[in-house]
Amino acid sequence: MDDTLESSRLIVVVGPTASGKSDLAQEIARELNGCVLSADSMQIYRGMDIGTGKLLSHEQYVPHCGLDLADPGESYSVAVFQEYGRKLIDEQLAMGKAVVVCGGTGFYIRALIDEFVFPAGDQDDNPVREKYSRLLEEIGPHALWEELKRVDPASAEVVHENDTKRVIRAFELLADGTSYSKQKEAFQKIPQHYPATFIGLKVEPAILNARIDRRVDKMVAAGLVEEVRGLLSQGFREGLTAQHAIGYKEIVAYLDGECSLEEAIASIKISTHRYAKRQRTWFRKDLRIHWLSADEYDLSRLTRQSLDIIEKVSH
User: Fold this and answer.
1) Which of 22, 176, 194, 221 has a Cα-to-Cα distance from 79 of 20 to 30 A?
2) CA atoms within 13 A on the CB side of 69
């Protein structure tokens, strides 16, 4: 398939949380007679709907994929998502359909679009990961990082000791014959697997934080506490209290009596502000993205601008 034709059928819409990318992705997909593929590491979980900002079935007017792929806390990796997403993209493109990838999880998007090759152990349960996860519980983050520093000082230099997920990842890569530091150095040089058109929504931080605060309040009003309570009753505590489960771990703390509801809500807002800042930092490095201002969110204007960009890139 011609690369320009393929880039007009595979669109990637990115931006920080609460920037409005879900609505824009859906509108682009409707215009192009395609589907939306969510690239969000939390929307893959069943039952985690309100707190992840997931478009519910009655809000979807084009097919949506990448949602509800696993139970909360179930083992799921970026490599598994890559396999799932590429199969879907290949099928849709072969039928002449468009796919609009939408997400705020930068690594999921890059793993999907770019030539990332993951070790076999990334596909499912990894014994190296299990070994060092157990060791983390036994000796704590600092001692685990010190062990990494002993066996791979270059990787220890670029991984913070409290970032235990990446510390464990560094041990996995060592077992696979490479290193985290080398992988990070090569990260920006990885070629694309698919031609694609990248569109990003940028929002001034103060405006975005205000939107985040309103969105969190709406989530609570929509029944976030009840959603968390129901998931806890199903035995999903581990998934809800995970490091990246913003909006869930704070409500669990409230339900456990560790804080008031007001304190939990304030904590969700602060954590989401920080997450949005990390997303902006990640996406800012990707020079393929065509940025559109969404300070004033006008969906019809953003859709027209996006379609103009797609048409220009494909010619």
Assistant:
1) 22
2) 22
Q: What is the pLDDT of residue 172?
A: 85
Calculate what percentage of the chain has a pLDDT beyond 90. Answer: 71
137-154 pLDDT tens trace: 899 889 999 999 999 998
Distance in angstroms (rounded) separating the CA atoms of residues 269 and 285: 25
Q: Which residue has the tokens 């793993």?
A: 111
Task: Please give, one letter per residue, the 3-state secondary structure of 121-132.
Answer: HHCCCCHHHHHH
In this structure, the strands spanning 289-293 and 64-65 are unpaired
Q: Is 38 in contact with 102 (CB distance < 8 Å)? A: yes
Confidence of residue 313 (pLDDT cuts 50, 70, 90): confident
Please count the CA atoms within 13 angstroms of the CA of 172 that sit on its side-chain side.
20
